[in-house]
Each structure stands twice: as C-alpha cells, then as structure tokens.
Specification:
Oligomer: homodimer
Largest sheet of chain A: 2 strands, parallel
Radius of gyration of chain A: 20 Å
Helix content of chain A: 25-40%
Strand content of chain A: 15-25%
Shape of chain A: globular
Structural class of chain A: alpha+beta
CATH superfamily of chain A: Winged helix-like DNA-binding domain superfamily/Winged helix DNA-binding domain
Order of helices and strands of chain A: EHHHHEEHHEEE
CATH class of chain A: Mainly Alpha
Number of strands of chain A: 6
CATH architecture of chain A: Orthogonal Bundle
Number of domains of chain A: 1
CATH topology of chain A: Arc Repressor Mutant, subunit A
Number of helices of chain A: 6
C-alpha cells in the first residue's frame, strides 16, 4: 500500500487520528456483535432466537442489539405473534447490508485458513457458483494490497 | 440468505457447530489484532513501530503478533539495522493478504457510516478510482445477501 504522505513523515499519521477502520470496529468489532450480525444475516430477527441460537446471555444480546440499532446496522420493527402482545424484531438496515463483504470475507477466510473445515458451502443461489469477497475499484479492476493508495486529503487534526 | 436445511429445522444448525466466521473472529476479532493488521497493511513490520504507532502496550503487541504469526497471518523475517543485532520483522503472508477484503470492507463502511468523516481516500494506484470490497460468485456475478445460499453438505456433528 502506498500512503500519501508517507507513513514515515513525522506527525502525518498520528496514533489518535480518526480512523474509519477503528470506527467500524467500535460498532461491530466485539465477538458478540459479530455473532449477532452473522445470525441477522442468516435471517434471525427475534430477541429470543438471537439468545437461543448464540448461547449469549440475554443481557449481552440486549446490550449488543441496542448498540447495533443505535449504530444504524439494525432497525426495530414491530411484529405480533398470534395471541401474543406486540414485540420488536431486529432487521438489517441498508447500512447493515453493506457489511456483507466483511461477513462473507470472514466466512471465506475461515473456510480456507482457520479451524476445522466445516461442511458448508456458500453459493450464489441463481448460478450455484461459490461466493467470495474481493476488492475492486470503481472502474471494475481487481485490486491487491500493493495496488492501493491511501491519501490524506487534509491534514489530520491533533487534539 | 437461503439456508439448506432451513434454519428452523430442529438441531440442524446447533449453537456449538464449527463456524468459519467464528474461527476467523478467534484469529482477528480482537480490537488489538485488527489494529495491528491495519498497521501491517500500511506497511509496518517492526515491533517498535507497531507499539509506537498503535499506542498498544508492548505486552499486548507481543501477544497479538505471536497469535497472528501462529495463525499464519504474519510471518517473521530476520532483518538487521545498521550497527544493531539481528531482529525479526513481521510481514503479511499470502493468507494475511487474503484478509484484504475484510480490511477494505471495514475501511469503506467506516467512511460511509461510522464516526467522524476522516479526510482520507482509498484508491487504485493505477487508475485513481475509489476502492471498495464487494461480494461476487466465481462466475463473476455481484451477489447480495438475498442471493446467497448456505448449504450444509454433511450433517453437523454434535459433541
């Protein structure tokens, strides 16, 4: 990756500069948050199902669902099961759907490199080909790490 | 996402089944690990630079770099600064490079949806177009969440 200005420029890339990767990690970077997102991607929407399916405590699920809702990843929608009072369910927002490359990236990397090889396949429903996440530019070129340029367009404010 | 068998099938998707997403999160899912990966993607290789640039403690950096090395994401390579004894530096392996869609996904999502808008742009060096992560199948079709099928190819063993 090429950095502009170069990483070695004194003070150019301070530790405390706002970083969009860190900002995303603050939202989804805890294990419970990621597991709940996985379940939301699987189609889970109800509090009880999030709890049952993840083995997380009710308190953890409540806290993390609230955080993901505040961050705009999930939104509450009322539903009413037959004979029961109205409750909220949690569904992915548009911003939540935009996390899909991250979720698919985690899945594919895990299948290739981490832990026991689960007997799973993730495919495109229409054509049955395997699915993966990849990096491209707006012109459609595939982009590798060495082809990236990160540019600071204004000096980073230090506090 | 379509699941085969359906998520509602009793016992088909147990809490304790091996999950490649969880396996990846075990490797890179802590905030320090992700921050160190960001720095490695920026081109940082030396222990002291990882410590100085992240504000993480030396103990945390040492533990996490060892974990990332054991997981095959980083590898140690000896180097010798002029007049100093030989030391190791940490460089991304091929498996480490395969994390790029996740790292770029975190960056792009943060720029769009999280926190203060940093004055940064991530572009393709050759053509200067903006870069993003996306989900595609092996046939090259763009794939959205609703177009995905996750299939269990063998029954999941319960312990």
């Amino acid at each position: 990756m090429r950095l502009i200005p170069p990483l070695s420029t004194p003070g150019a890339w301070p530790v405390d500069a706002p970083c969009p990767i860190e900002a995303t990690i603050r939202v989804i970077g805890s294990r419970p948050a990621m597991i709940l997102l996985r379940e939301a991607a699987y189609g889970v929407t109800r509090f009880d199902d999030f709890t049952t399916r993840t083995g997380l405590s009710g308190a953890t699920v409540a806290t993390r669902l609230a955080e993901l809702t505040d961050a705009g990843v999930l939104e509450r929608q009322p539903y009413r099961a037959p004979g029961a009072r109205s409750r909220d369910e949690y569904v992915l927002t548009e911003a939540g759907h935009e996390l899909l490359p991250i979720i698919v990236g985690l899945f594919t990397w895990g299948m290739r490199h981490a832990g026991p090889s689960a007997s799973l396949s993730l495919t495109h429903t229409e054509c049955a080909a395997d699915v993966h996440a990849e990096v491209r530019c707006a012109s459609g070129h595939p982009v590798a790490l060495d082809d990236l340029t990160l540019t600071q367009t204004e000096p980073t404010a230090r506090t």
